[in-house]
Amino acid sequence: MRGVAASPGIAIGKSVLKMEEALKADEREISPDEVDGELERLREGLEKAVEELKELQEETEKKLGKEEAEIFGAHQMLVQDPEMVKTIEEGIKKDKKNAEKALEEAVEQYASLMAGLEDEYMQAREADIRDVGSRILRILKGKSDEQAALPPDSVIIARDLTPSDTARLDKERVVAFLTADGSRTSHSAIMARSLGIPAVVGLGRDFLKDVDDGAKVIVDGNEGEVFLNPSEDKLKDYRGRLEEFEQEKKRLAQFKDVKAVTRDGEEIEVAGNIGNIFDVEPLLEQGGEGIGLFRTEFLYMDREDLPGEEEQFEAYKEVAQAMGDYPVIIRTLDIGGDKDLPYLELPQEMNPFLGYRAIRLCLDQPEIFKPQLRAILRASHYGNIKLMYPMIATLEEVKEANRLLTEIEKELEEEGIPFDGEMEKGIMIEVPGAVMIADALAGEVDFFSIGTNDLIQYTMAVDRGNERIAHLHSPYHPGVLKLIKETIEAGHRNDIWVGMCGEAAGDELLLPFLLGAGLDEFSMSAGSVLRIKELLGFWTKEEAKEITEKTLELGTAEEVEKFLKTHKKTEK
Amino acid sequence: MVEKEVTIKNETGLHARPATLFVKKASSFSADIEITKDDKTVNAKSIMGVMSLGAGKGSKVKLKAEGDDEQEAIEALVDLIDQGLSEQEGG
Fold it and tell me: Which helix (H) or strand (E) holds B29?
């Protein structure tokens, strides 16, 4: 069976069905004498629910951060909602229903009311109301919130997982989860990735009918495949894969708490790219020593209006604090191109990648840019934050952005709001024209970070989304490699450091070339960090330099790839 | 009792986050507060009530408060709506 691969990894376990329907209210007509007792029971139940939710909010805040915990604050509001409470009480008083039944009917009434509204946000509240409803119902039925002891190697199967479910998942016992609904961006998928548990979502409602409780299941979160009651051969195959996966994990774990050092003892910074606070813990678990790219777009997407300064400040501060002394490079809004924000109502363009995007848009609309700069500056007081502008093509752009920043620094000073006056400022190098004027650009900033995905696209004139010409989008093209080398040299000529936050930074083949070219910082997706740390230890600076020089003598991407393959190292 | 009519100005209207802010603010007063749009009246301290009004941008709503702090309540809520229901405080 195939679904959406929502969180990578392989798991073999036993199915545990989590059916909301399991919790049903018994219906009972009550006598007038019982009304007061039922009302009291309801009041106690609601109080208990609020208490539980407060606890859950605190717990989640510690584990996953403030933003993710907020949902339980919203749930508290729902539990105490005067209109809904009134409806339940009326069900008890007038219709002489027991508290459970009166609750169930009120929940049904409000949930379908929300589901019927046109607004997508409101429709999503239906699930919250039902989640809150089951919580109160469970309390009224006298059951505790402790999860019924799950067997080890549980594969949780549900229609969808609510925030309450995922927050309480016992990570020791749950090896994977599968849901009938959901997509890669649904709550359960995001949580699975941040917990590091393999997950396949969007398997369809029929899937729930096909699966029995306690059945053997193989979950392949890399491919989005699920095998129910697999054959012995299949099991053997996947046991092998799981074994390999685990061994690799164990071997690489030794690099988690050690700095990345070359064989001749030079420290290199290996950092990770993140999109939000949920990515921080997995990155630290994978041995990341900083954040080389914090994509702030996530804060702006899937909503109806721009995030305010306050909200952004909280988000940046949270990440900075979670990272402690490690550097956190926050990239200002990189929207446009293939990433649209519908509420900005940007006009359609013939060539969006060559159009009104990133720094161009931000400088043109300072009312969007300034709150972000203010939020970043304010957050800089709480950690080791660095600021980075995307898509810089001209000197004027950097100067203008820095001018705005200085203006805001003055504002903050006047308002007496603390910020880090020494915060480093850098730019992304993604446009070949910028490489050509790198010496001049270096005079305005403290660092460069090479964004290879766009640099390749602009250097090779290849739309990276076009499959028919995808073979031309190669980091091995000598033209691209020369630009990378030149960027690093220009940076060093002007005494600033140079990092890389594109996919190429995690490319095992390119590693000796980049090391030899003098790259100071490698930033990649969390999954590659440990492996790159290991590989860096195989090389000395001198050996790598030789590779860089020889690579630059080659004429085609094919030759480069072949050369790097024959010269890769598998040990010290 | 204090009554006042206001027009919703922000893009989103009294939905989603703005509705939550509005209800939180209303709940911080002891007065009973009602909000009416067209002929539908709901408790202003009820998130479900407020959201079910469907008050979008440009809607006129009537606020009514009764209780000790009725005056402050109306002023604060009218202010909040006039400022476009955005999150401004905190820090």
Answer: none
